[in-house]
Design a protein that fits this description.
With 107 residues, the protein is α+β, with helices and mostly antiparallel strands. It has one domain: 2-Layer Sandwich (GMP Synthetase, Chain A, domain 3). The protein is 36% helix and 14% strand. It has three helices and three strands, in the order ααββαβ. The chain has a three-stranded mixed sheet, covered by helices on one side. Strand 1 and strand 2 form a beta hairpin. It is elongated and about 60 Å long. The N and C termini lie far apart (69 Å). 16% of the residues are buried.
Length: 107
């Protein structure tokens, strides 16, 4: 019985320490959308951001990506990196094909 009590106390202490790093999914979603809005995507509103328990899912248009050039880089890795920079993100998942087109905004 003493071992169970010690384990329970240790788990409670660990949970209290980790709670400092946990953030509500709504806050994470808002921050990810804001961060994605700062990179030159064709249509940031076309990217759906969902968060569950800190796992961010990014979904966008599933059209095949055009051939990438210096003027039209593949922005998916940048979107993933920017998402990882948001506090509270545990994982980033792409929904749909890897070739989603999130190209530069037309000017």
């Amino acid at each position: 019985m003493i071992e169970v009590e010690a384990l329970t106390k240790r788990f409670g202490a660990t949970r209290a320490l980790l709670s400092v790093f946990l953030r509500p999914d709504t806050d994470i979603s808002r921050d990810v959308e804001r961060a994605l809005g700062e990179i030159p995507l064709t249509d940031p509103a076309a990217i759906t951001v969902t968060v569950r328990h800190g796992v961010v899912t990014l979904a966008g248009p599933g059209e095949p990506a055009p051939r990438r050039t210096r003027e039209s880089p593949d922005l998916i890795p940048l979107a993933i990196r920017v998402t990882w920079d948001v506090d509270g993100v545990v994982d980033v998942v792409l929904a749909g094909p890897r070739t989603c087109t999130w190209g530069p905004r037309s000017r």
